[in-house]
Amino acid sequence: MAASTAAGKQRIPKVAKVKNKAPAEVQITAEQLLREAKERELELLPPPPQQKITDEEELNDYKLRKRKTFEDNIRKNRTVISNWIKYAQWEESLKEIQRARSIYERALDVDYRNITLWLKYAEMEMKNRQVNHARNIWDRAITTLPRVNQFWYKYTYMEEMLGNVAGARQVFERWMEWQPEEQAWHSYINFELRYKENWIKYARFEEKHGYFAHARKVYERAVEFFGDEHMDERLYVAFAKFEENQKEFERVRVIYKYALDRISKQEAQELFKNYTIFEKKFGDRRGIEDIIVSKRRFQYEEEVKANPHNYDAWFDYLRLVESDAEAETVREVYERAIANVPPIQEKRHWKRYIYLWVNYALYEELEAKGTSIGKCPKNKLFKGYIELELQLREFDRCRKLYEKFLEFGPENCTSWIKFAELETILGDIERARAIYELAISQPRLDMPEVWISFAQFELSSGKEGSLAKCRQIYEEANKTMRNCEEKEERLMLLESWRSFEDEFGTTSDKERVDKLMPEKVKKRRKVQADDGSDAGWEEYYDYIFPEDAANQPNLKLLAMAKLWKKQQQDKEAAEQDPDKDIDESES
């Protein structure tokens, strides 16, 4: 034992002692050492000799050495994913797919959040045509990391390249459940637009196997999905033929008419052809006439779209719809037509436009048939006509039109104001004043706007006594509107009067108007349901005007009760704090 210990001590080398510890005269830096090594090419190693493998034993030996090298690198640092990928790709190059899968699985156990690892793994399976394995990997990837859009794009692209459109659609639908960014939705839309016929194939598959209700739902889903923006006549033709096979002829007509109303004429040639064939086979004379009318409607639609100011085309279109369509459709076309106002101020252009209004009014009068002329758009007609004459500066004709208009509707507050404003612009102040006075004398006109406009007119005239006249108009308006049921309109008049007095009146004038302002109070009232039963109570705000309160004993009693309650509250407060009263009396 002692001999072995002594032998061990003899094997330990002795450390050389440095006798001179002074720094060298010439200092050499690390940079100089590297530069000299580069210059002398000391670090260049000769390339390894090429190894030629001649038999299976040598190949197995080579594989063993390489695998040991890869495993050693992984053992040194397991978190370096590039070592795992190089290892798996080397196994893949040897067609050792099962070993490569094992390496990728071991790497995923180390870092399953690494996106590159999943991509390389799936790409290996796809390159080697292992489709089901690739699907499995993509499915695991989107389940584990659903917010990585690259996985979803790769997965749907693979299914689309394989021709599995239904599978790609299913992946897209799973993706949309995660509410991804806008680009993902666009990709889904473009995918569906590329495969419109797949909806038809899907529906025909269901029809072939006798699932007619399922086939109808597929067609309905397709129509809803593509909407009005991406309509395709092939889809509607297939849908109509399916319903024709089911002997649902009314459904067929609805489908054809729905599509023809929304698809442009150039893109609906096949649709028209099939609709005509259908009506000849199963329809009557009325059905064939509907086809002809629909075709003519398409022609007129194209004409008015190309030139909205082609009033002759609008007249032809209106004659067609008046002879065949419902009243609401006719009104819709009239409204579209009159919305196209002539862009230039020439009488020959406006003449045709005004006739649109005249025909519209005549149609409504004939439609009403003497029951109620309320629907007749004469007010629109008069306004359009007056607008024409104003642009042509035919002011005398404008006056006559306003007079006719006000004979037709004397309760129209805006028309009286516009008529008076026209006379003011033309400088005929006396005529404008006469129009205002005539307006406020109308028994059916109890709105404050005319009174306010009349007062502002007198104020803007700038003549002597204009303030007195303006104040007199407000006083007369207040007296007239005391019986007005709409208290908000009466308040509107008083607020306008107060604004006038704030600017031009004296202190006493302001106080006088302030005394006329109402008090806003909260009240309760019963509410009845539609069936007449009690539905509880609701709160609402009401306005109590001092002039009305003076004439109502109940309101006086209510005011006295409020005053008594306030006095009682002040009395109780004084009893609770007597020191405050002493301090106030001393002060």
From TrEMBL:
GO terms for cellular component: post-mRNA release spliceosomal complex; precatalytic spliceosome; Prp19 complex; U2-type catalytic step 2 spliceosome. Residues 82-285, 306-475 form the Pre-mRNA-splicing factor Syf1/CRNKL1-like C-terminal HAT-repeats domain. Keywords: Coiled coil, mRNA processing, mRNA splicing, Nucleus, Repeat. InterPro entries: HAT (IPR003107), HAT_Syf1_CNRKL1_C (IPR055430), Syf1-like (IPR045075), TPR-like_helical_dom_sf (IPR011990). It is found in: Nucleus. Residues 567-579 have a biased composition (Basic and acidic residues). Residues 467-494 form a coiled coil. It comes from the Eukaryota. Pfam families: HAT_Syf1_CNRKL1_C. The keyword Repeat applies. One of its GO terms (biological process) is spliceosomal complex assembly. Residues 566-587 are annotated as: Disordered. Belongs to the crooked-neck family. This is Pre-mRNA-splicing factor Syf1/CRNKL1-like C-terminal HAT-repeats domain-containing protein.
